[in-house]
Amino acid sequence: MSLEDRTKATIKNIEGKVQEAVGDLTGDPKTQAEGQEKQVEASVRHTVENVKEKVKKVID
Predict the structure, then answer these.
(1) What is the total count of domains within the chain?
(2) Which residues form the domain of 52?
(3) Residues 36, 42, 48, 53, CA torsion sign
(4) Cα 54 to chain centroid, rounded
(5) 17-28: per-residue pLDDT in tens?
(6) pLDDT (tens digit, 9 = 90+) per residue, 5-55?
(7) Distance CA 41, CA 7 (A)
(8) Rounded to whole angstroms, how far apart are CA atoms 54 and 48?
(9) What is the pLDDT of residue 44?
(10) Which of 9, 29, 53, 57 is the most buried (most CB within 10 A)?
(11) Measured at the alpha carbon of residue 43, what is the angle toward residues 14 and 34, in degrees to the nearest 5?
C-alpha cells in the first residue's frame, strides 16, 4: 500500500470517528452510523492492502 493510500485510509478513519462523535453529541443515529461506516471502510482498505503486501512478499 502506498503511503498515499495509507494516508487516505487513515483520514477516512478519522473522519468517521469525528462524524460518529458528532452523532453521539447531537443524538443523530444516522450520523453515528455514517461515521461507523467510514471507519469500517478504512479498516477494510488497510486490511486489503496489508494482504496485498504479504502476498507480494511471498511471491518475491
Answers:
(1) 1
(2) 3-59
(3) negative
(4) 19
(5) 999 999 999 999
(6) 889 999 999 999 999 999 999 999 999 999 999 999 999 999 988 888 899
(7) 13
(8) 10
(9) 95
(10) 9
(11) 55
pLDDT for 60: 83
pLDDT of residue 1: 54
The label of the residue with cell 512478499 reads: 57
> What single string gives the DSSP state of each residue in 1-31?
--HHHHHHHHHHHHHHHHHHHHHHHHT-HHH
Distance of CA 10 to the CA centre of its chain: 6
What letter represents residue 20's amino acid? E
- Asked if 13 and 42 touch (Cβ cutoff 8 Å), the reply is yes
Determine contact, residues 23/35, Cβ cutoff 8 Å. yes
Residue 15 has phi, psi (to 5 degrees) of -55, -45
Amino acid at site 10: T
- The residue length of the chain stands at 60
